Amino acid sequence: MRDKEMERFSTYEPFYVVLGDKRIADIVITSHARIRYMDRVQDGEDDINKIAAWMWECLKQHRITPYYRNEQDVYLIDEDIVVVAEFNKLEREVDLIGNALHKMIIVTYLGKMSETIELRDLKSYYSWLRHSRRMTLVKNTRKRK
User: Cα separation of 111 and 96, whole Å?
Assistant: First the structure.
């Protein structure tokens, strides 16, 4: 998802947006993230290009912030929507100074904190999920015996 129109002519530097220590030049939405977006963020929006364009606008407007200070893969959009993302370096693409450019891969949308209160503390939410899954597995193994 690159900007389709450049506002300046004769620009040699690839366009990127800085997020933390990464210079993002491309956004990829996984199929899982598209499904989660439709379920948890905006009902009925299924066009990956529109989702990527919305993410690109959020990046350019600096509406995306890290969820935790030291966390590199969980981000908040507009202090409400929780997103999990990974970053890969783009091959043979650097800015004018020689810094690597990155591709932002949206793994999933966890949902809105305003609707799902559990998302306000992800660490306790994930520990609760692990515990509930572990208990389900223990119950299922008891049934088999």
Answer: 37
